[in-house]
Amino acid sequence: MKTAAVAPFFFLPSTLATTIYLAGDSTMANLGGGSGTNGWGQYVAQYVSATVVNDAVAGRSARSYTREGRFENIAEVVTSGDYVVIEFGHNDGGSLSTDNGRTDCSGTGAEVCYSVYDGVNETVLTFPAYLENASKLFTAKGANVIISSQTPDNPWETGTFSYTPTRFVGYAELAAEVAGVGYVDHGAYVAAIYETLGNATVNSFYQIDHTHTSPAGAEVVAEAFFKAVVCTGASLNNVLTTTSFEGTCL
Fold first, then answer.
1. Could you confirm whether 97 is annotated as catalytic?
2. pTM for this one?
3. Span 173-191, mean pLDDT?
4. Domains contained in the chain, CATH given
5. What's this protein's family per the entry (predicted)?
């Protein structure tokens, strides 16, 4: 007696095999909402057909994130085709004369500074250099890197809309250009949406200070990031489940 032929089984890889890693500070991190705030990274998963790993950590700068080995930790697990979004700037300013362990060396290239932090001699790099070095770690593994400019502080804080990008916005764009990776001006897209939403709504997002957003505000900030991705044609478009986000392309 003949048995029916069984069709061969082929495994079709799922987009969910792709992972998006987020590297940033408290404006991106999972803050749990306990203080009435949260980072925008917690609202990424609902818009993508990929696994999201939010490795952002409150209080970190590009320098301290590097010193703590956090970029290297991501590089150890990232695989070809994954994505890494890097966004810093809020904690990177200051002076090395009273080193807080976060301040970067002044400059935009290969300049170095020397400091003693926590009793250890440290060679301090520039902001772009930290991002460029991190990008190289990931692209060497075949990952797609997007450097994102920092989110703005509340531009309606004075009652009149005002947005002036910090120097770290330009530094982020420069780093992306030098490293040959994607760039989105997240700050500009957030500011554009905030201007449209108006004073009362935006002020309601900032309940403890002018930097950290409520969960509702963080979701708006996440959507602004994806609007920038759609408008700039960044590689992350490949895993978006929608391209319909508020606002216009800048």
1. no
2. 0.93
3. 98
4. 19-239 (3.40.50.1110)
5. Belongs to the 'GDSL' lipolytic enzyme family.
